[in-house]
Amino acid sequence: MADETENVIRVGSRKSELAMIQTRKIISVLKEIYSEKEFQIETMETIGDKIQDQALSKIGEKSLFTKELEQALAVKQVDMIVHSLKDLPTTLPDGMVIAAVYKRDDPHDAVVFHPRYAGKTLRTLPSGSVIGTSSVRRVAQLKKCYPHLAFKDVRGNLNTRLRKLDDANDYSALVLAKAGLERMGWNSRINQVLGPNECMYSVSQGAMAVEVRADDDKMIECLSKLQHMDTILECVAERALLRKLEGGCSAPVGVYTDIKEGELHLTAAALSLDGSECVKMSMSTRVDFSSSEIRESDNKQVYSSIVAPGKCSEALKAVEDLGTDLAIKILENGGREILEAAHKENIQNVQQKPL
Questions:
Q1: Strand 263-271 relative to strand 253-260, pairing
Q2: Catalytic pick from 87, 109, 216, 298?
Q3: H-run or E-run covering 74
Q4: Residue 167 appears among annotated catalytic residues
Q5: What is the pLDDT of residues 204-216, one digit of tens each?
């Protein structure tokens, strides 16, 4: 943990406005719990921030939005990092864990239309209308649902992307994470919310997480106060699935998770890049283990890179196994061939990118 004599905790964050809003939100909650602590934000740019002219899937680099921050954490330049959990790879660097998963906001995708198309939906847009998104997951699913639309990469932070939409006629609409728009206070720009039948969301989308060094027991204990059990269960299951599928920004994988009446239901799909092929399957498991005894040894267990002291290990293990088992089922029923083909196509795109 940070220097106990000074009560200072150094918090790593990306420089974007959305990243700073998320970081300040986590700090504000921690300040309510630990009023004696002082929090200092250390900002830095990541690879994903610096390269703005290429689709994420074509950059050919893992940890696009986390690598520089994790290097700072490793050398104790910062004590914790606030992330959008969807940006964190399913396998973290050695010695790193996720010590907090804050209550998830709405994980669905939303559509923001150019002002000239006010009142439209994706279905009612003119044929050939261009939709801006850099996500292969979104493109694959939306091509399948709306074959009359065209899709084009759009990069940059939320401010930049909305400016590109409003100031030119290159895009008819953008598809963005609803949670990000709401955190920025741009609820009024949300014109359509995409349900799971149109576009399942990204693994861990809508959740904020805090990454720390695995040996920093004091920081892990400090951050355990932020944990939201339902969100942890959902994200452990989703991350376990994606890890087994060996997916990331370059893989068209969508998920939909729901906890109801003591069971977690997980639906996932693996798609070809053009959306023409899809393997979609569901599984569920019991997560109501409220009477289970929590042992001290459970507090050190890691589930999909997440530690959750004081939380039910039986439920966490059950949803991690569920994610893995569903991934295996998808792979065995045609998903492996679909994802391998998508991976090869992305590799070719990376090799062909201009220097």
A1: antiparallel
A2: 87
A3: helix 67-74
A4: no
A5: 999 999 999 999 9
